[in-house]
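By convention, each integer encodes one residue's backbone shape. The lines below illustrate.
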Amino acid sequence: MFQAFIINLSQAEERKTLMQKQIQKFQDIDFIFFDAISVGSREFLSYRQKWDCDFLTKIYRGKTLTDGEKACFASHYALWQKCIELNRPILILEDDVLFFEDFEIKVKDLFLNPRWQFVRLMPLFKKRSVHIEGDLYQVLEGVCGTQGYFLTPRAALAFVQKAKLWFCPVDNFLDKAYWHGIRTFFFSPPIIAENSALQSCIDSVGKRELRKVQKTFFGYKITKECLNALEWIWRKYDEWTKSNK
């Protein structure tokens, strides 16, 4: 049986109930609720060496990560470690998704095909991509989002090894194939969707933090733009070297 981990805050009982109702219809996937790492928890603080790099983050993106973004990264990072420990592919899902009819069939194909290392079940944004086969496309630009993805131990290990400092949100990190070496593929049409009726669990406190940080660290805009330009060059060079192999 294939395993899927659903990231769920312990206090988000409504979300858990809605997910439990949905997953009852799937026979070949073992769904496991993973207690999301919350801000200020012991688990959150155990990752301090990774997320306590606000100066670097401000230089890179002009603002720090909110505590909610740091906790989100921690939850996904912990599941990458779990994937390595299990030594088998897994699905990672957030608890605000809806499943389309072909979800189980498409997911089973991923588990049975060793070709795929990291596949997003939906892109958050539509960006440049190239068709590979069937409903699968390869990302050429960041599509963002961590609503749901398929992950192998090889990809998980690459993510863990390169995520030594959390200088950007986790979904942006996943898009950086030039950095960790794992190409992003995604389904189009998607096989899951966000449940727009549910409010984000990255919390209103995080949003207030973000607005405050954007004003406070506006002076880092120049370093941000310079690094973005260097990153663009790095990404293009990576694309060119891969296409000429």
In short: The chain has one domain: 2-243.
